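Budget justification note: compute hours in this period were largely spent on complex prediction jobs such as the one shown. Inputs:
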Amino acid sequence: MNIILNNQSYEVPDGLTVLEAARRCGVYIPSLCYHPKTGPAGKCRACVVEIEGLRGLQTACTVRVRDGMKVFSNTERVLQAQRLVIDLLLSSGEHDCLSCEQNGVCELQQAAYFLGIERPTFRIERDRADDRSAEFIDRDPARCIACGRCVAGCNSTVVNEVLDFGFRAGETAVIVDDDLPMGASSCVQCGECVQLCPTGALTDKKARGLGRAWELEKVNTTCPYCGVGCQVTLHVDRARNRVVRVTGREVSPNQGMLCVKGRYAYEFPSSDKRLKYPMIKKDGQHVRVSWDEALDYTASRIKTIIDQHGPDTFSAFGSGRITNENNYAIQKFTRAVIGTNNVDHCART
Amino acid sequence: MTNSIEELQDAKVLFVIGSNTTEAHPVISYYMKRAVKRGATLVVSDPRKTDLTRWATLHVQHKVGTDIAYINGLIHEIFKNGWAREDFLRECTENPDVIREGVRDYPVEKASEICGVPVETMRRVARILGEAESTSLCYTLGITEHICGTDNVKTLANLQMVLGNLGKPAAGVNPLRGQNNVQGACDMGALPNVFHNYQPVNNPELSAKIAKAWGVPSLPQKPGYTMPTMLRKALDGGTKILYCVGDNTVQTEPHMAHTIKELEALEFFVVCDIFDNLTTPYADVIFPDTAWGEEDGTFTNSERRVQRVRRALTPPGEARSHWWVMQELGKRLGKDLGFTSANAVWEDMRKSATSCAGITWERIESLGLQWPCPTLEHPGTTFLHRDGRFTRGKGLFSVTKWIPQAEPPDAEYPLVLSTGRRLWHYHSGTQTRNSKGFENIFGEELLEISPADAAALGIRNGDRVRATSRRGSIELTAWVTDRSAPGVVWCAFHFAEVCANVLTIDKFDSVTETAEYKACAIRVEKIGDGQPLGAGISRQARP
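Corresponding output:
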């Protein structure tokens, strides 16, 4: 179908909301409470637009496009309304970007930048203390805009049912269980809320201070734990050769969701306890040797033993932990070089 | 898995057996819980009260190791009430009368005596499954880690065939794989009886085809040994060399003391790994391996999806990818394997592949593909056996009979020990215990024991206890919890210093040689007072 957005004509598929259609057309409309995974909420009103034939301003995240619909997201009336929404949100919290982990990827910051808001006009006093009690997730309620994405994610996406809204009106706040510190709650630290949070209200504790979003290189890979094969993005500090943060990719099979291990158990490659050099046992001690020495020694021992006792005295373990390519290499080596089918792995245990 | 992970959220009925999904496969549990929120009926059958049972319509606590009796009882009841899908049986299976006859010995009354589930509950489960439009069945190692693991799986397959729950979405028989690439290791031929893509080594035609692709005159056609046999043969000289990659054998095989004896008997033992662990001290040679995040390649997940892994970090010191080690050793033993890069290894595999032949790294650059994917144009396969057309033609029923566990409890060792994984750690702990924060959340292994057993033994929550089997003993802290049914205690194998596999029994399924990790007999005694574990202890999966 055809829509006219800011006097430009676009072809868009049926069934989209105005916000989704605008995003698809590359037109930015500020929005905070909407996330593709948690759906339209119509809560924050940052995405208000004018739609010809409809009275008043409409939230772009809740109105579905119709053929020939005329939408304006850039009139002064629209921008003023959006500006007030964002201004009030900025006024009602401590949105200090200087050392905020979300700086550069914050959706509130992006909206303020787009609307040209330099500093909040109002000052709304609210007393909300940080919650740094959990092992992996920091909560900074002063940066919360009560958009509800984390609550929707916790209850509908990962169905851990830990986060909720508590209190009323101006005091409305996201609470953990019955308003417990997160570290004392039933939260399993899956981090879906962090991934969905548009601001710096929920952040990865371990990544704090370890690199700005734009300094980190993003590498897509697969989680190394269970057999679900969650798709993840590693945020890598190349200079220090370490992973700083892991986020879930919004694709199959996990649609962005992860568990506590997949999201937070990522430092082991950088452990100083890693095995770094080939070693041979000499007089009961493992001694560092060169690769050539280790390989020559191993090849000669294998050759001596199988020449004398036959190839079936050789056995190899592949592994459910290593890549397909490495497993294939092991079976080919065992079968084609040694000449035995004695290759197996931990699948049966 | 015959079906795909995301289909689980569309299931009308979910039957989960022998799977602590919320802890071992959390992301799959999210989809299961979403299905429940949409109105699905969830039946969890597990001797333990896992976190998933909080969302279950029905939690059935059958006794450890009685799966065959329990499921056969359900099948019996399904036939009796005319809930079997006769059209599916007629058109898609070869021998429906065999199963009709085969479950005759398991009326619910008799099955109930064996599995300890009340007759009325069994009838209720049978009705839920029987009247469901379709049921998605998921299982994990609670089914396979028994001496009758193969028959357990066959029994579950029988159930789903009787109900016609194969060859359609949100149904099927779905083993949830425990490791990132255990599916891939199988697919790539790290198995004694098949090459990559399950091409049997004893098929002369296939053997010749692969010998040609690999540039060797011939390949051995006698199937090799399984892992437990390889180890067992170390003691009689049948195995002299063990080449072990990415496997902490001492900590993860059952009966640790025996495993150590087997490794010590080897003439030459090579270990390739990323950390020192309980196994490396026995190695004659250690090769430092690249870790996850340090090399390019692919993993294949539970739903047969081949997905990319990528190099993001420089490996430490001189750690190398294992395919490179194989190439170098091959050269020294007179054979150039042709491995110049990980991608070259994959392409080498593809040349003689079948179900993965259509998958290239280029095609899976942004999203993985599910095999079977035989050609470059093939879109991949989300669920197997479409419309009840099985790979072998028609579905085949095998009759199964319940047998008791290898080591039933007795007066001396009166409790059953079952083992598994926790949310906060992974396998032998080398990854999670070398990542920050996990030790703070869960820093020591706990023995889960039911309030009834604990009271009888004078054990309070947090006391120090000794658990002893015929094979060894460990000392740890008791967690008195109704997660354990009376008579069953439970602990994990993540902690090298207090490892369940000191106790577990080295008795194996006769076909797969999977060990009975889920059941051995132990006794527990209190050895000291301890601090009571925190109040939040039984919340979700928390300690």
